[in-house]
Amino acid sequence: MRHALLACLLAVAALGATAAPPARERAHDYLMRRVVAALALSDDKAAQMRDILRRADDRRQELASRRDALDTKLRAALARSTPDEPALGELVGDAHGVQRELAALPERTFDEARKILTVEQQAKLLLFRRDLQGEVRQAIRRRATAVHSTR
Q: Among residues of the chain, what percentage have pLDDT more than 70?
């Protein structure tokens, strides 16, 4: 739960992941400004936090790409009339490993951020998460509504 802010940051970054890179950059910059303001980060700490979140987002994108490729392979393997059990088992293990890494990413990111944040900033980060979670949910709803209304 305490990692929810970083999970939200990663989720919002994911929203922009399929958009043009400038849109993704704008979303990342907006979130960083919010984090910097909410935590009253110095320029040095803001730069460190930006690096932490950028690495996490890059890792998330890499893992999501691997997951998508494995999903395609799993679907193809299951579509065969007689699946190759050992090969399918290996794909299942690989896909589960990637999912596990994706799930652990917010916790690892928070642990890394804690190393540079004061206890007060950590507390502010924990309190800030609910506001950001609500904003992310609203953005997702607006995006879903916009997509449905154009169909």
A: 85
Q: Residue ranges of the domains in the chain?
A: 4-149
Q: What is the C-alpha to C-alpha distance for residues 50 and 14, in angstroms, rounded to an integer?
A: 16
Computed over every residue of the chain, the mean pLDDT equals 85
Q: Could you tell me the sign of the dihedral formed by the alpha carbons of 95, 96, 101, 107, in that order?
A: positive
Q: What type of residue sits at position 78?
A: L
Report the distance separating Cα 58 and Cα 10, nearest Å: 10
- Model confidence over 112-135: pLDDT tens digits? 999 999 999 998 887 887 788 788
Question: How many other C-beta atoms are found inside a 10 Å radius of the C-beta of residue 50?
Answer: 17
The number of C-alpha atoms within 13 Å of 141 and in the hemisphere containing its C-beta is: 6
Those residues whose C-beta lies under 8 Å from the C-beta of residue 107, and which sit 6 or more positions away, are 3
Q: Please provide the size of the chain in residues.
A: 151
Residue 136 structure tokens: 């992310």
User: What is the maximal distance between C-alpha atoms in the chain?
Assistant: 60
Q: Is the pTM of this model over 0.85?
A: no
